[in-house]
């Protein structure tokens, strides 16, 4: 290894570490996955045991609210827990209105389908959704659109991956929703919660780890403001 190789490898390791940390923050990490899975898991477990829609729905909604309370008490980020509460609440309303336990999962399935289409459509339009999500996390905002073509390409690949993976998930779940047994459908849905998500996150990491580093637009603005202040302080003495 030459002296020129080492800084490059160090920079690549730093970029990968930053990418891992940003993905962990953006998608909630292990705790976010638990908060996503637990209400549905509780619902299908209780319904499998006693076939009582009301008790299963109340338990799922209760644990969702509890997760938010725990987040608030620990002064953590509540966006994942709150999104879980809204998703479960919509599911409970649907299921109670129709009396069909499978309808508990319908809002989440429709959201997944809509999200899959959003990933694909925004990428085709030149503004891949994953870039809009992760740009602020990486402190690059939308600079990747015009100033970092390699990074834009990576975001496009990642968005296509998310869209296709979610569409594949929908292709499995919607036929089961219409024709499958309620209990079996619930367990299949729970089984498909985490693996597709992890695959999409891993592919995102792979694409971004190989992409050019993000342009820190916040640092650029701070540097510009600092230069402007210094210029103003030097100007009087130069007269």
From TrEMBL:
It holds the Pfam family DUF3159. The keyword Transmembrane applies. Coiled coil: none annotated. The keyword Membrane applies. Keywords: Membrane, Transmembrane, Transmembrane helix. The chain crosses the membrane at residues 21-47, 53-74, 81-98, 110-138, 159-179, 185-208. Signal peptide: none annotated. This is Membrane protein. It comes from Streptomyces aurantiacus.
């Amino acid at each position: 290894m030459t002296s020129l190789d080492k800084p490059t490898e160090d920079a690549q390791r730093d970029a990968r570490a930053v990418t891992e940390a940003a993905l962990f923050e953006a998608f909630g990490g292990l705790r976010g996955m638990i908060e996503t899975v637990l209400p549905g898991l509780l619902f299908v477990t209780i319904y499998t045991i006693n076939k009582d829609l009301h008790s299963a729905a109340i338990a799922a909604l209760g644990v969702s609210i509890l997760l938010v309370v725990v987040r608030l008490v620990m002064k953590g980020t509540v966006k994942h827990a709150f999104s879980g509460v809204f998703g479960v609440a919509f599911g409970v309303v649907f299921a109670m209105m129709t009396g069909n336990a499978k309808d508990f999962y319908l809002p989440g399935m429709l959201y997944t389908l809509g999200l899959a289409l959003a990933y694909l459509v925004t990428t085709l339009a030149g503004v891949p959704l994953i870039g809009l999500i992760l740009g602020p996390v990486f402190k690059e905002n939308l600079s990747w659109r015009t100033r970092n073509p390699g990074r834009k390409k990576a975001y496009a690949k990642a968005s296509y991956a998310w869209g296709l993976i979610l569409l594949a998930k929908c292709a499995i779940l919607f036929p089961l929703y219409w024709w499958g047994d309620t209990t079996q459908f619930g367990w299949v849905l729970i089984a498909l919660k985490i693996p597709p998500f992890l695959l999409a996150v891993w592919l995102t990491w792979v694409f971004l780890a190989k992409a050019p580093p993000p342009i820190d637009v916040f640092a650029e603005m701070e540097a510009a403001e600092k230069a402007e202040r210094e210029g103003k302080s030097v100007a009087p003495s130069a007269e």
